[in-house]
Write a structure and sequence with these properties.
The chain has a single domain, classed as Porin, CATH 2.40.160. Helix content is 7%, strand content 70%. It has a 14-stranded antiparallel barrel. The longest helix has 20 residues. The chain is globular.
Length: 282
């Protein structure tokens, strides 16, 4: 409880700070959104889920050099799930620098989560680094790595995860196409390994002022505890459009589907996802 209050106070302080000084040299963005979806299992059961993004944004000042501060607050409402009502707060101090051959940077993500209806929760620390190397004026290699350490409140159990990603990106047709590989590994015994083949294309359509990102993933999963293996895919599209005075409308939809089986039972599931949001850039 004390950690939650402390994080809320810090978030409020950041909001007050940004409001008072944004007229000078502090800029950034803040967004709110609603994410909804439906999960349908092959045994006939299904449930709906909703996530409220209360605040998601970042602050950056000309006086901070290449540093910035990101923050996220959201709440989950999942029917038929023990995460129903879960609240999560994130702070993301980061650094990003552009140089002659590309960019490099990273962020240290602090997460504090609280489950609904009881005093249980979790603390997560996630250091993340990224690097982009320009091959030519129109092509580049993008890499990213992240390590997640999670502790459940009131328990000695830890749940660690490590992931890496590499993509080749090329400017074509007025947009950028990317293809690459994602690898994730559960450090603890009961976590699963995951390999994803990535393909995406994003473009700004000047005639309609719409930015769109079309993405797809082919995933291969392996559970280290029971040895089960399964495949899945995910396809979707994200789009946004400015509507004036710093406001931007956002929308996203995707579908996820297992080919084989889920973690615990031998059945597949299909998940539909929708998001609508609004962002203010200052």
């Amino acid at each position: 409880m004390k950690k939650t209050l402390l994080l809320l106070v810090l978030l409020l302080a950041c909001s007050i700070f940004s409001t008072e000084v944004m007229a000078s040299n502090v800029h950034g963005s803040i967004r709110s959104a609603v994410e909804t979806g439906n999960r349908h299992n092959t045994d006939g059961t299904d449930y709906d889920f909703t996530k409220l993004i209360l605040a998601d944004g970042f602050l950056k000042s000309d006086d901070w050099g290449n540093f910035q501060l990101g923050y996220v607050v959201h709440k989950n409402y999942n029917q038929g799930d023990d995460n129903n009502g879960e609240t999560e707060i994130e702070f993301r101090p980061g650094y990003q620098k552009t140089i002659d051959w590309g960019t490099y940077g990273g962020q240290l993500i602090f997460v504090q989560g609280r489950s609904a209806g009881d005093s249980s929760g979790y603390d997560i620390v996630k250091p993340e680094v990224n690097l982009t190397y320009n091959l030519t004026d129109k092509s580049r290699i993008y890499t990213r790595g992240l390590y997640e350490h999670r502790n459940n409140t009131g328990s000695n159990s830890a749940n660690d995860w490590v992931e890496g990603e590499v993509q080749y990106q090329s400017d074509i047709g007025g947009g950028t196409i990317g293809t690459g590989l994602f690898i994730g590994d559960g450090v603890e015994k009961k976590d699963d390994d995951e390999v994803r083949g990535l393909l995406n294309y994003h473009k700004y359509f000047s005639s309609t002022k719409v930015f769109a990102n079309f993405y797809s993933e082919l995933r291969y999963h392996r559970n280290q505890d029971n040895g089960k293996k399964w495949k899945s895919y995910k396809v979707g599209v994200y789009a946004n459009r400015p509507i004036g005075k710093g406001f931007v409308l956002e929308a996203e939809t995707n579908v996820y589907h297992d080919f084989d089986e889920t973690w615990d039972v031998e059945q597949s599931y299909r998940e539909l996802f929708f998001m609508t949001g609004i962002k203010y850039e200052f």
